[in-house]
Write a structure and sequence with these properties.
Elements lengths: L4 E5 H4 L1 E4 L13 E5 L2 E6 L8 E5 L7 E4 L4 E2 L3 E6 L5 H9 L17 H5 L2 E5 L1 H40 L12 E2 L6 E2 L3 E4 L7 E3 L13 E4 L5 E3 L2 E3 L12 E2 L2 E6 L7 E6 L7 E4 L3 E6 L4 H8 L2 H10 L10 H5 L2 E4 L2 H41 L17
Parallel strand pairs: 3-7
Antiparallel strand pairs: 1-9, 2-8, 3-4, 5-6, 5-8, 10-11, 12-22, 13-21, 14-20, 15-16, 17-20, 18-19, 18-21
Length: about 400
């Protein structure tokens, strides 16, 4: 391995440069991604750097590295690779992820890194052919994750369109046979009801009163689950409190959401095996609903509907931090269709939800495998020299 790897300083491998200021008032609508320390944060009409690009955080988010395959504008909170010095850009994006940038913090109270210190870091790097093989292996995992993520987005958009068609525009199956009648929410189909969202009999509201653990992370968690669960946008952290200190709820199918007005969003849904009788523990910053699977689709897309999101702003209260309380939830009324239509909708979208869950679990496994391989490949502990890998498309 040693003959194929070179010991040098990071500045011999690449040249980092600080990004550029771009105040909001100077931004123009366009298709050029604006890259901050947390990734793409907007779009602009002009590019500052040509693709391919590699960007990392200079302030705020240290150690996150982004590979950009189109022309872009790096903000002044970032460092970008100005010169790859003959090395493979995609490989370098993975390589930088293995470096401990946080040890190069020189900004005092504000986390930051100094590119001059980074340039003199001692590193070991393989020759270009090995770089391309390593990048090919790792990018295969990222490509699969991206493809799964794209499929999840398509399925969710399909289900949302069906929900809007049936329950917002009232073009549900056989809607022509149902007359419209007056209600407190306007004209609705005859036989439909208006109810408070946390009193709908199909939804079981779950309140939370657990204070986050001493690590101060906001989380919602399940007890008796080994390891960490990541399901859709929500993150499950293993809860360290004793069960006697936490409110426990049996969870079958559930939807969690953050209460805070400024950060309010549906975090995701979970599927817990009913037969395992597992319990959920919910942080005080969150709330949720659960239901049986045969009506879960209706639960999820009702809580994630535009109607719910608009009304929650009206009923958020608080002196210092606006949030949605239990009393506020009681004031959010929504239209509830007949039971047969709820079941019909859920039976239509539940297979989409099931597929999304499978794809997200697949992504979780792919990420774990990639992250295990990353340091071993980058350090040469896994030798790829004799692997027959086509790297033609990776040549910079």
């Amino acid at each position: 391995m040693k003959s194929k790897w070179n010991s040098c300083q990071l500045g011999d491998v690449l040249e980092l440069k600080r990004g550029y200021d771009l105040p909001n008032r100077h931004r123009e609508d366009g298709e050029i991604p604006i890259i901050s320390s947390s990734g793409i944060t907007g779009y602009h009409s002009e590019a500052k750097v040509s693709a391919p690009g590699v960007v990392t955080g200079r302030y705020g988010t240290l150690g996150k590295v982004f590979f950009i395959n189109q022309d872009f504008w790096p903000l002044n909170t970032t460092l970008y690779v100005k010169d790859f010095k003959g090395n493979d850009p995609l490989f370098l994006s993975y390589f930088l992820k293995t470096l401990n940038f946080s040890n190069q913090n020189v900004a005092g109270a504000v986390p930051g890194v100094n590119r001059n210190y980074l340039h003199i870091m001692d590193v070991t790097i393989p020759e270009i052919q090995l770089q391309q093989k390593i990048a090919s292996i790792l990018s295969t995992y990222d490509d699969l994750i991206e493809n799964n993520t794209r499929r999840i987005k398509i399925l969710e958009e399909m289900a949302q369109r069906i929900y809007r068609e049936w329950f917002v525009h009232f073009r549900f199956p056989d809607h022509e046979k149902v007359k419209m009648v007056e209600s407190e929410l306007g004209m609705i189909p005859d036989g439909w009801e208006v109810e408070s969202i946390n009193e709908i009999k199909y939804f079981n509201f779950i309140n939370a009163n657990v204070t986050p653990y001493e690590d101060k992370k906001e989380y919602f968690a399940t007890a008796n689950i080994e390891g960490t669960k990541i399901i859709k946008q929500g993150i499950w952290y293993e809860h360290k409190n004793k069960p006697s200190r936490a409110q426990k709820q049996p969870v079958i199918f559930s939807v969690w959401f953050a209460r805070m007005k400024d950060t309010f969003k549906v975090l995701g849904f979970s599927e817990i095996n009913k037969n395992l009788a597992e319990k959920s523990i919910l942080s005080s910053g969150f709330a949720g609903f659960k239901s049986e699977k045969d009506v879960f689709g209706f639960l999820y897309y009702t809580i994630n509907s535009e109607h719910f999101h608009i009304l929650k702003d009206i009923y958020c209260t608080g002196a210092t931090q606006m949030s949605l309380t239990n009393e506020g939830l009681k004031k959010i009324n929504t239209i509830v269709p007949p039971e047969n239509l709820i079941h019909k909708f859920s039976s239509t979208v539940n297979p989409m939800i099931d597929t999304c869950l499978l794809l997200e679990k697949s992504n979780q496994n792919l990420r774990q495998t990639r992250d295990l391989l990353l340091p071993k490949l980058i350090s040469g502990k896994i030798d790829v020299e004799d692997l027959d890998i086509d790297t033609g498309e990776l040549v910079a």
